[in-house]
Automatic annotation (TrEMBL):
Localization of this protein: Mitochondrion inner membrane
Entry's transmembrane regions: none
Function (record text): Required for mitochondrial cytochrome c oxidase (COX) assembly and respiration.
Record's compositionally biased regions (Low complexity): 87-104
Similarity annotation: Belongs to the CMC family.
Name of protein: COX assembly mitochondrial protein
Keywords: Chaperone, Disulfide bond, Membrane, Mitochondrion, Mitochondrion inner membrane
Record region (Disordered): 79-104
């Protein structure tokens, strides 16, 4: 079973879907004898490819949006906490503070 065929999501499959509709219109016996099976397989392949492309676009868009949101969050954290200090620089600052305390 498949979803509704003639939608804007499936515009690239319109020609083959129309051929399937025409095959089905030839009557029950024509369908029952399997005369539309090859066209049906082609429709399923086309719909599957369309769904895959749509899912890929959605995934890529979601990743892009997530990157953008995380950049905004990082800027907000920086404003709240001050500039972020890389771990190596923080270790150098701590070591310098310990050395200064030892000299006194």
């Amino acid at each position: 079973m498949h979803s509704h065929l003639h939608t804007s999501y499936n515009a690239n499959c319109e020609e083959i879907m129309t051929a399937l509709d025409e095959c089905h219109a030839k009557g029950f016996l024509h369908k029952a004898l399997g005369n539309c099976n090859d066209i049906k397989v082609d429709v399923n392949k086309c719909l599957s490819a369309e769904r895959y492309q749509r899912a890929k676009r959605n995934r890529d868009e979601a990743r892009s949006n997530r990157r953008r949101i995380e950049e905004i969050w990082a800027k907000e954290r920086e404003l709240d906490q001050g500039p972020a200090v890389p771990p190596a620089a923080a270790a150098n600052v701590a070591a310098a503070a310990n050395t200064g305390a030892a000299k006194q």
